[in-house]
Design brief:
Number of helices of chain A: 11
Mean pLDDT of chain B: 84
Low-confidence stretches of chain B: 1-54, 327-335
CATH architecture of the largest domain in chain B: Orthogonal Bundle
Number of domains of chain B: 2
Largest interface: A-B, 43 and 43 residues
Shape of chain B: globular
Helix content of chain A: 40-55%
CATH topology of the largest domain in chain A: Cytochrome Bc1 Complex, Chain D, domain 2
Radius of gyration of chain A: 17 Å
CATH superfamily of the largest domain in chain B: Cytochrome c-like domain
Distance between the termini of chain B: 43 Å
Strand content of chain B: under 5%
Number of domains of chain A: 2
Strand order of the largest sheet of chain B: 1-2
Strand content of chain A: under 5%
Oligomer: heterodimer
Number of strands of chain B: 6
CATH architecture of the largest domain in chain A: Orthogonal Bundle
Mean pLDDT of chain A: 84
CATH class of the largest domain in chain B: Mainly Alpha
CATH topology of the largest domain in chain B: Cytochrome Bc1 Complex, Chain D, domain 2
Chain lengths: 229, 335
């Protein structure tokens, strides 16, 4: 059974706020939709409008939280981040935790925060635990399952899940629980189909143990954007 | 999700899959918007044989069954070359393509010119070069044309490894050039003559997301090959099999768009193949110095756009020389 952190939004919000108080201080009043504004919201939020600091959940460096289902945001494509915040705000994508936060942001803030996180260096990920059958998971991630016409994840998400351009977000070093939650959301029709409707069809072909396996596989890959020969 | 919710969802998915499988049996009429989840949740995997093929195909052993002995090491090297020739056979490769970009599932997928279908079919006479070719010579051809590189010499470790890999996966297959699943299945002729302009529209809607607006493909964020180039200097050259409308249409209809295979109509596939194969790419290595003569000798077919005029441009007249950018002498020096 996957951990649905979304079930307990209030508790996590509270935790987020607590964690954020340890983030480096920037005056909360400075929330203009500029680079510094984005940084301020990321670190401090805007208490008056009920925007909790992003850092509380997504980490001071946007590295996410591997143990919870808080995705890494650092180094994800700006356009992709913006689209996600927009669909979270308009209700097409649904998250008990994130939707209300996304709704509270102005369009300018959404753009500024997306740019801000996309430009943060990709954090070194701490290796996460491999799943129970790592060989089968690696086979699925790297070769897919031809019998099912299921293409390998790495064909679209790049070698080891490093991501390809603006439309194919990185999975490497992403929280395993978060990855699993997204695949479940697509299976349940609870996340918009995205470009060409590719992901819902992929997710529909994955069993629960497939999902556990590939999620652990990608979580365990080094998050990097370094050009390798 | 609770256990009950999950089983309800699974039941719904099963129902949907059944419904869609039914609908997609009349595929050509299915619009792109229709979800295609055929075989989505089937728990007993059945060999994937596209509807075009009536006969059942050979099933190669899983990669995990590769032997661990010295022969197995050579087989494994063959698989690595097949999936990443730019690293493991760099001296002979002039572009960023992988063998597995066109021979899908590491050269194992039936009807995608699988290596087990090829292995049992040589030696064979080929009109392309007018003599009987061994399997090794056939491998050389793909380096020269599809990989826009140069042929590894006969007996080279690269060819030995690829042959070992192909042989290993073919064990148990009948020696028979007509073995079911070999090559790319011939596609029916389109209802209307194929059209470049319509093809461009199909391309923009169904292909550009991955292969790029100008067919150049995309690198992954770490600089490794991502989506393969379909034309231009980094793609296969004018001598390659994928440059024929017939091969390209068959491949595209069976396998593209990736993840949505089968969603294009026969007409769409021919139109987009015509569009893709009517763009400049590296010169045919057999170039005689004259585009007209090269067409006459090697491309004299309605399946090739080489040497014809498209949008006012004589195709082949502005091709960069073949051979691409072979990575000098680095073969096998990288992990």
């Amino acid at each position: 059974m996957l951990l649905r952190i979304d079930r307990y939004p209030a508790a996590w919000m509270l935790l987020g706020v607590c964690l954020a108080t340890t983030a480096p201080g920037i005056r909360a009043s400075d929330t203009r939709a500029s680079a510094t504004g984005a940084k301020a919201i990321a670190a401090q939020g805007d208490a008056q409008r009920g925007v909790p600091p992003c850092a509380g959940c997504h980490g001071a460096e946007g590295q996410g939280n591997g143990l919870a289902a808080f995705p890494r945001l650092a180094g994800l494509p700006a356009r992709y981040l913006r689209q996600q915040l927009e669909t979270l705000a308009d209700g097409q994508r649904n998250s008990a935790v994130m939707s209300s936060i996304a709704k509270a942001l102005s369009p300018d803030e959404v753009s500024a925060l997306s740019a801000y996180y996309s430009e943060l260096p990709v954090p070194a990920s701490s290796p996460q635990r491999a799943g129970s059958d790592p060989a089968a998971a690696a086979e699925l991630a790297e070769h897919g399952r031809a019998d099912d016409r299921l293409p390998a994840c790495v064909l679209c998400h790049g070698r080891r899940g490093v991501g390809i351009g603006d439309d194919f977000p990185p999975l490497a070093g992403q929280s395993a629980t978060y990855i699993a939650n997204q695949l479940e959301a697509w299976k349940a029709g609870a996340r918009p189909a995205g470009p060409m409707g590719l992901m819902p069809r992929i997710a529909a072909k994955l069993s629960e143990s497939d999902i556990r396996g590939v999620s652990a596989y990608f979580a365990a890959q080094p998050a990097t954007r370094d050009v390798q020969p | 999700m609770s256990a009950i919710a999950r089983s309800v969802a699974a039941a719904a998915a099963l129902f949907l899959a059944g419904a869609v499988a039914y609908v997609s049996s009349t595929r050509a009429e299915v619009s792109n918007a229709t979800p295609r989840t055929e075989a989505a949740v089937a728990s007993t995997p059945s060999p994937q044989v596209p509807s075009d093929s009536k006969r059942s195909a050979f099933i190669p052993p899983p990669l995990s069954a590769m032997p661990k002995d010295d022969f197995g090491k050579m087989v494994r090297l063959g698989e690595q070359i097949f999936e990443d020739p730019a690293h493991h056979a760099s001296a002979y490769v002039g572009n960023d393509l992988r063998c597995s970009n066109c021979h899908l599932d590491a050269g194992r997928l039936a009807n995608s010119a699988p290596m087990w279908g090829a292995y049992v079919s040589y030696p064979a006479y080929r009109s392309k070069n007018g003599h009987v070719n061994t399997f090794e010579e056939r491998l050389q051809g793909c380096f020269r044309f599809s990989m826009n590189g140069k042929a590894p010499p006969l007996g080279d470790k690269v060819l030995v490894a690829l042959e070992s890999y192909s042989y290993w996966m073919s064990r148990g297959a009948r020696v028979d050039p007509d073995i079911a699943g070999r090559g790319y299945p011939k596609l029916d002729k389109p209802p209307m003559p194929a059209d470049y302009k319509r093809g461009q529209q199909v391309y923009d809607e169904n292909c550009a997301l991955c292969h790029g607006a100008h067919g150049t493909g995309r690198q992954a964020n770490d600089g490794s090959p991502g989506f393969p180039a379909l034309w231009g200097p980094d793609s296969f050259n004018w001598g390659a099999g994928m440059g024929s409308f017939e091969n390209a249409a068959a491949f595209i209809r069976a396998n593209m768009p990736l993840g949505l295979a089968g969603s294009l109509s026969v007409q769409d596939a021919w139109d987009v193949a015509t569009f893709m194969d009517s763009q400049e790419r590296p010169q045919d290595p057999r170039f005689t110095g004259s585009v007209a003569e090269t067409r006459q000798r090697f491309h004299n077919s309605s399946n090739s756009a080489y040497g014809t005029v498209v949008n006012g441009h004589l195709l082949g007249s502005d091709s960069i020389t073949s051979g691409g950018h072979p990575r000098a002498t680095e073969t096998s020096s990288r992990p």
